[in-house]
Amino acid sequence: MAPGDLQEVLAVIKPAGHGLHADLLVGLGRADDAAVYRITPDIAIVETVDFFPPVVDDAYTWGAVAAANAMSDVYAMGGQVMFALAVAGFPRELPKAIIAEVFRGGAEKVAEAGGVIAGGHTVIDEEPKYGLCVTGRVHPDRIFIKGGLRPGDRLFLSKPLGTGVITTAAKDGKAAVEVVEGAVQSMLRLNRAAAEVAADCDVRGATDITGFGLLGHAGEMVEASGVGIVIAASRLPLLPGALALAEAGTFSGGMKRNRRHVEAVFGSRLTVAADVPPALAGLLFESETSGGLLFSVAPDRASRVSEGFARCGEPCWEIGEVVPQPVIRVTR
Predict the structure, then answer these.
(1) Which residues contact 35 (CB under 8 A, 6 or more apart)?
(2) How many angstroms separate the CA atoms of 247 and 27, rounded?
(3) What residue ranges define each of the domains in the chain, with the CATH number in brackets?
(4) Percentage of the chain surpassing pLDDT 90?
(5) Nearest to 218 by CA among 289, 296, 166, 165
(6) Beta-bridge partner residues of 131
(7) End-to-end alpha-carbon separation of the chain, Å?
(8) In the predicted model, is pLDDT for residue 30 greater than 90?
(9) Of 199, 227, 288, 296, which sits with the fewest C-beta atoms within 10 Å of its C-beta?
(10) pLDDT at 97 (0 to 100)
(11) What is the DSSP letter of 29?
(12) DSSP 8-state symbol, 317
């Protein structure tokens, strides 16, 4: 659902009752990437669920990408994956061998994360859907939250943008094989190492970039933190081929919905510099699948972020900073 539509339907669920549950550390009362419930003084459960239709043609890869995407919310809260339940719907006539490959892809990606598929639920559905309900764990004092941004913080992004335009183009046969493969490899990469490095660098605020796009999720951080962000468009990492497809106009429907929502919420508090190319600006609103972590650290921790990612052999990009005013500014 579009961000605004989701907020509207969730408004009927009154979060006031959350006050009766002192161990519910993160829930609807403070919207974030996953729910967190304290079990002991040292252990809290992280719970999330995510599923969607195929984003690639190969059944195994779809299952693995959907699993990586679902587990990302656990990492966005600073947690580690324990186990997962599969949630799926398939057409009655779909061959069982294809369904088995979807489940195998998901199970092997969960195993890569150090977890296990413990069960699940399936229904008959005309449109195939697959995903996971994931359970993780985190120390109650080390939870990542969207509302942790502080003025002066440096902003980092752990994966390039572009999965949305690439998978959209791929559905119409308009994306080169090597471009699609680059997006697939990015979507398959877990945010596990990124979360560990962020935690080691005393992360302030964090979220993962998925359906609401970079500025949609960044906007949630701004609203939760009461401060603002400045992003340098020229520093943003892009998947190979993404900008060319954006220039050709192959955006998903989610991009326009995300843009309308961010513009409606922020109004004049959202500015995109005139010298930022329209196609590049569009990529900032485009939906992503299994995108990277967006997180902030204090200025004196910024060098440790680069060093930490280098040690684990993964890329990371410093893309901006946090400012006192609750704005979103995109500069060239």
Answers:
(1) 24, 26, 27, 46, 47, 48
(2) 39
(3) 14-138 (3.30.1330.10), 146-331 (3.90.650.10)
(4) 92
(5) 296
(6) 51, 87
(7) 30
(8) no
(9) 199
(10) 98
(11) G
(12) E
Distance CA 262, CA 69 (A): 23
Task: Give the amino acid at 119.
Answer: G
Q: What is the pLDDT of residue 5?
A: 74
Non-local CB neighbours of 237 within 8 Å, separated by 6+ positions:
157, 159, 160, 161, 315, 317
User: What is the four-CA torsion angle of 202, 204, 209, 210, rounded to 10 degrees?
Assistant: 100
Residue 82 phi/psi, 5-degree rounding, is: -105, -60
Over residues 296-300, the mean pLDDT reads 97
- The letter for the amino acid at 73 is D
Residue 16 confidence (pLDDT) above 60:
no
Longest dimension (CA), the chain: 57
Query: What is the residue type of 288?
Result: E
Predicted model pTM:
0.94
DSSP-assigned beta bridge partners for residue 328? 229, 270
- Tell me what the pLDDT averaged over the chain comes to: 95
Amino acid (1-letter code) at residue 257? R
* CB-based burial, 222-236: b 16+ in 10 Å, e otherwise: bebbebbbbbbbeeb
The residue among 328, 211, 233 whose CA lies nearest residue 271 is 328
Q: Write phi, then psi, for 290 (nearest 5 degrees).
A: 50, 50
Q: Which residues contact 143 (CB under 8 A, 6 or more apart)?
A: 25, 26, 36, 44, 77, 78, 79
Residue 15: predicted pLDDT: 59
What pLDDT score was predicted for residue 171?
92
**What is the pLDDT, as a whole number, of residue 28?**
78
Alpha-helical runs (H) found in 177-331: 177-188, 192-200, 213-225, 242-247, 253-266, 278-285, 302-311
Q: Between vectors from CA 210 to CA 67 and to CA 176, what angle results, nearest 5°?
A: 80
Residue-wise pLDDT for 101-116, tens only, equals 999 999 999 999 999 9
Note the pLDDT tens digit of each residue in 67-108.
999 999 999 999 999 999 999 999 999 999 999 999 999 999
